[in-house]
């Protein structure tokens, strides 16, 4: 991941994508174990700051999400935005990581509309009666603070009558 993420070695993207796709299949198997129908309705990803985007030229979480979405035939949409730049998480303690994630993310302006539309597509006769399953993709999971902050914002962005189940997929755990 470091070769790809920090050294712009893009030849690693396809292997990272296939590894993420394997993890996606594990999410579906987990749903089966809990007697749920194995499905994900939408894939989204953790946004990077504009500073980080300019440094790297890409969002590694978005690229992984797009590979999984392509092979899984699931739509991918940008539902989150980063409100401020933070220093690299790898340089922080666990406590600092958790504290630093407060108010970093918010839902994009049309997130509620995007989710409402998906509810209507999934169940046109009664869009309020369904649970929407979202897969949130990031590259590395350490404390869970980033995933938790993003999931909180997604749940905040939708009308309370709707239910979201948010699953996370990360390429690595550190």
From TrEMBL:
Domain of life: Bacteria
CDD domains the UniProt entry points to: PRTases_typeI
Family annotation (Gene3D superfamilies): 3.40.50.2020
TM region(s), chain numbering: 12-29
InterPro entries in the record: ComF/GntX_DNA_util-trans (IPR051910), PRTase-like (IPR029057), PRTase_dom (IPR000836)
Keyword Transferase appears in the UniProt entry: no
Keywords: Membrane, Transmembrane, Transmembrane helix
Family: Belongs to the ComF/GntX family.
Protein name as it appears in the record: Amidophosphoribosyltransferase
Organism: Paenibacillus selenitireducens
């Amino acid at each position: 991941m470091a070769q790809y993420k920090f050294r712009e070695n893009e030849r690693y993207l396809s292997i990272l994508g296939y590894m993420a796709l394997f993890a996606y299949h594990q999410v579906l198997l987990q749903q089966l174990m809990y007697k749920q129908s194995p499905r994900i309705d939408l894939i989204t990803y953790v946004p990077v700051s504009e500073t980080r985007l300019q440094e790297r030229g890409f969002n590694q979480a978005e690229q992984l999400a797009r590979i999984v979405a392509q092979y899984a035939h699931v739509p991918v949409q940008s539902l989150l935005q980063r409100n401020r730049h933070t220093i690299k998480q790898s340089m922080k303690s666990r406590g600092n990581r958790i504290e630093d994630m407060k108010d970093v993310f918010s839902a994009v302006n049309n997130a509620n509309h995007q989710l409402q539309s998906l509810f209507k597509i999934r169940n046109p006769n009664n869009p309020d009666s369904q649970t929407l399953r979202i897969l949130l993709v990031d590259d590395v999971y350490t404390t869970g603070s980033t995933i938790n902050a993003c999931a909180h914002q997604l749940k905040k962005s939708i009308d309370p009558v709707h239910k979201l189940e948010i699953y996370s997929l990360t390429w690595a755990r550190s």
